[in-house]
Structure formats: C-alpha cells, structure tokens
Write a structure and sequence with these properties.
- With 262 residues, the chain is α/β, with parallel strands linked by helices.
- Helix content is 46%, strand content 14%.
- The chain has eight helices and seven strands.
- It has a seven-stranded parallel sheet with strand order 3-2-1-4-5-6-7, with helices on both faces.
- Helix 4 links the parallel strand 4 and strand 5.
- Helix 1 runs parallel beside helix 2 and helix 4 runs parallel beside helix 5.
- The protein is globular and about 55 Å long.
- The model has no long low-confidence stretch (mean pLDDT 95).
Length: 262
C-alpha cells in the first residue's frame, strides 16, 4: 500500500512501545510502510515475532525486543536496541478497571509507573538527541478518557492526565528544534484492551458482553469500532516532516464520540 503523500521520514529510526498488538502494532506497521526502521517492544515474544514478520513483509528494516517497557530493565533493553530514535511512540497497556475504593497505594503507583512515568523516562532518554539532530517526533498514546473520563477507569484517567499535563509544558520548549510532542487519544478501537473494558462494564451493569458493546457503539456517531490501521495512519502523519508545526496537541480518534466543541 503506497502513500500518495511522501511523509519525508524514510530511513528515520523509530522506537514503538507495546507494539506487538493493537494500536502500537498499527503505528509500527504504518511507520514501516513509510520506510522507517522500526524497533518494536512488547512483553509477548510470539505476538512480537508475528508483527516483526509483517514489518519485514512491507520491506522495512525491523528489530524486536521482548521486554516490559514499564520496568527500568525493559527500558534499558529497548534503548540498547534503538539508542537514538528520531521517532518515539510511547504506549503501554492501561491499568485495570475497577472502583477506586478497592485500590491501594501500590495500585496507584503501578498505574503512574506504566502510564505516566515510563513515557517521561523514555522522553528524557531520547529528546536531547532529537534536539541535536534537529528532528524528533514523540507520540504518546493516551486515551479518550483524558478528555471525557470513563468511570471504571479511574487509574487510567488519573495517570494519563498527569502525563498530558507534563507533555503540555515540555512540547512548547522542544518545537523550536523541530522536535514535536503530541498525544493520540483513542476511543473505541478493535483491541484486546477494549474487550477487557467492555467486559468490565458488562460485569458492573450485570448485562451480557454483546449488550455492553451495543451500548458503547450507540454512543459513537460513526456507528462502528475503529480499526488500528487508521490509528496507525494518523500516527505516521503526525511523525511526518509536514507536521512540524503541530505540538502539544491531543488528537481524539473516536468516531465523534466526544460531544464537545473543544
């Protein structure tokens, strides 16, 4: 599948986290199609190998690292494989749904580690190299819940909002060096994560999974679930040379579900 618009990133190096499945995989494949050298990180070696095979199928150079990006050791392994990325896609599985009354301090710290502090650590490790080379694109995959909180996702609402606030300040300082930092906010996409969230909502309401999914679909003006490939295409464009004037933004990809003007 060739691009009509050349995004100008052929030969650049990308580090894509949680990239064996779902939205991370969609981003990795979209970048690979643009000729980017992609290093993908995920915990599951099997799914990782399958995604690496897809990357090579589109003719791109790829490396896979089986590691947990939310740990210091995992980040060290990822950065050893791709020490100077031009593109960084931060992504990690969201914390479990539930009722805040049941969460301990450790639950909160795990959520902050995965969905706020891990991206910040990876930005810290890579942004100065991007500034020196006068090119960098950092994308954080957050959630539509940052704009419209989802009741059962308190851990995610909190941790991801913390990251969003941090990024808002930093993104204004790096852009003069052609290093942009933006957030992609997915709504309902066809991923394992969404199956878990809808399952949790079904359990809370004591209804069947199909009924819970139908309820969610009824709130999406597009009338369908998103495809990870279209999410990846949006990510690739935000990483393009053409997108250098966009920074500190929160892009919603939710089929129109968020009802606000702003």
């Amino acid at each position: 599948m060739g691009s009509i618009m050349d995004l100008g990133i052929r030969g650049k190096r990308a580090l894509v986290c949680a990239a064996s499945k779902g939205l991370g995989r969609g981003c990795a494949l979209a970048l690979a199609r643009e000729g980017v050298q992609v290093t993908i990180v995920a915990r599951g070696a099997e799914a990782l190998a399958a995604t690496l095979a897809e990357i090579r199928k589109v003719g791109a150079d790829g490396t896979a690292v089986a590691a947990d990006i939310t740990t210091p050791a995992g980040r060290a392994a990822a950065l050893a494989a791709c020490p100077q990325p031009d593109i960084l896609v931060n992504n990690a599985g969201g914390p479990p749904p539930g009722d805040f009354r049941d969460w301990s301090r450790d639950d909160w710290l795990a959520a902050l580690d995965a969905n706020m502090l891990t991206p910040i650590e990876l930005i810290k490790a890579t942004v100065d190299g991007m500034i020196e080379r006068k090119f960098g694109r950092i994308i954080n995959i957050t959630s539509g819940a940052v704009k419209a909180p989802i009741d059962v996702l308190g851990l995610s609402n909190g941790a991801r909002s913390g990251l969003t606030g941090f990024v808002a300040g930093l993104a204004r300082k790096t852009v003069r060096h052609n290093v942009t930092i933006n957030n992609l906010l997915p709504g309902l996409f066809d991923t394992d994560r969404i199956r878990n969230v809808v399952g949790a909502q079904a359990k809370t309401k004591n209804i069947a999974y199909e009924a819970a999914l139908a309820e969610r679909l009824a709130t999406i003006p597009a009338g369908r679930i998103g495809d990870p490939a279209e999410f990846g295409a949006a990510c690739a464009w935000l990483c393009s040379t053409q997108a250098g004037y966009i920074t500190g933004q929160n892009w919603l990809l939710d089929g129109g579900a968020y009802p606000g003007t702003f």
